[in-house]
Design brief:
The protein is an alpha/beta fold and 322 residues long. It has two domains: 2-173, Rossmann fold, CATH 3.40.50.1980; 182-305, Rossmann fold. The protein contains ten helices and eight strands. The strands form three sheets. Strands 2-1-3-4 form a four-stranded parallel β-sheet, sandwiched between helices. Helix 9 (254-264) links the parallel strand 7 and strand 8 (271-276). Helix 5 (138-155) runs antiparallel to helix 6 (160-185). The longest helix is centred in the middle third of the chain and has 26 residues, at 160-185.
Length: 322
């Protein structure tokens, strides 16, 4: 498998156009070509870089990064790009070996690896690994925004002022989003602050805003939820009279519906509180297709579904109906 991947990488690199070669002869004023794995990283690069960058995201709406594998088209795009940004923290586990190979030839940065380890949640299944879902906490994600700016500046020093201004503005967005979250989520009754969803993607959210977070699957969607896990969660729903659970845009709702059916069989009604964006953003070109819109949607949906109050249109009135 490694040889196949390497041969594809070498073939794509050999076919790269002169514009894709290292930046020693980079044309002043030309946009920096950036490939990002997730939509969240791509959005950060666009917000920081503005017109100084052209950004392509490999993973679109509804795509699960835990199981994603690079395609031949992806490989060509990354070998032609000036800079590849990936998340790290074991999110793109299937692609790590490829990025190690690519980094020998091109500029490649794992942006979440720069976060202080003492701020990260330990991975439940792998020693010395951490929960990668750091975009769920706006203030933690601010550190990734800074690392994106650092990587862009290293690739194109002549646009350093542009990147510094873009990063400052985007970190301000994150701070405003955090303030909104603290305001509306405080309206949820304390007993109702239980967030149960398809997989354990909301741990940083819960840690930041005082919610108990329960995932049917573990941190990775590659982990399977057995019958005993489903049964234990049905017991929890019934015993604690939890009335709402959440589905996720990038994960099958099969297990969530099994919980609802199990609770119903025991005369306890559980409804779907809404669909949350976990590992992917919304449709490109929409507000929910940005990181701010994605998190705004989640905050507003959770607060409303669990008995709190939030503006119908979210932080700035830009959300589609929640």
């Amino acid at each position: 498998m490694r040889l196949t991947r390497r041969s594809l990488l070498m073939t794509a690199a050999a076919a790269a156009t002169p514009a894709a070669l290292p930046l020693t002869g980079f044309a002043a004023g030309a946009p920096l070509s950036v490939v990002a794995t997730t939509g969240m990283i791509a959005d950060a690069a666009r917000q920081v870089g503005g017109e100084a960058v052209e950004v392509r995201a490999l993973m679109g709406p509804g795509v699960d990064p835990h199981s994603y594998r690079q395609t031949r088209t992806d490989i060509v795009a990354m070998t032609r790009a000036d800079l590849t940004l990936w998340h790290g923290l074991y999110l793109e586990a299937q692609m790590e070996e490829f990025f190690e190979d690519l980094a020998r030839q091109r500029a490649v940065v794992a942006v979440a690896e720069a976060l202080p380890k003492d701020r990260l949640r330990a991975h439940e299944e792998y020693e010395n690994r951490f929960d990668p879902h750091v975009w769920m906490d706006p203030m933690l994600w601010s550190g990734v925004i800074s690392e994106v700016a650092r990587a862009l500046t290293a690739a194109r020093p002549d646009a350093a002022d542009v990147f510094a201004a873009g990063a400052a503005a985007h970190r301000a967005d994150a701070a405003r989003l955090d303030a909104y979250a603290r305001d509306v989520l405080a309206s949820v009754p304390e007993a109702a602050r239980v967030l149960l969803s398809a997989h354990d993607a909301f741990g940083y959210f819960g840690q930041a805003y005082g919610f108990e977070v329960i995932g049917i699957q573990g941190i990775s969607t590659e982990s399977e939820a057995g019958l005993s896990r489903i049964g234990a969660l049905v017991d929890l729903l019934v015993s604690r009279r939890i009335g709402a659970v959440f589905v996720e845009s990038s994960v099958s709702d099969r297990n969530v519906r099994a919980l609802i059916e199990g609770a119903a069989a025991r005369s306890h009604e559980v409804r779907i509180g809404g669909e949350l964006y976990s590992d992917a953003m919304g449709v490109p070109g929409t507000y929910e297709g940005t990181w701010v819109g994605m998190i705004d949607h989640n905050i507003t949906t959770i607060a409303t579904a669990l008995g709190g109050s939030a503006p119908r249109g979210g932080m700035d009135g830009r959300l589609a109906a929640v």
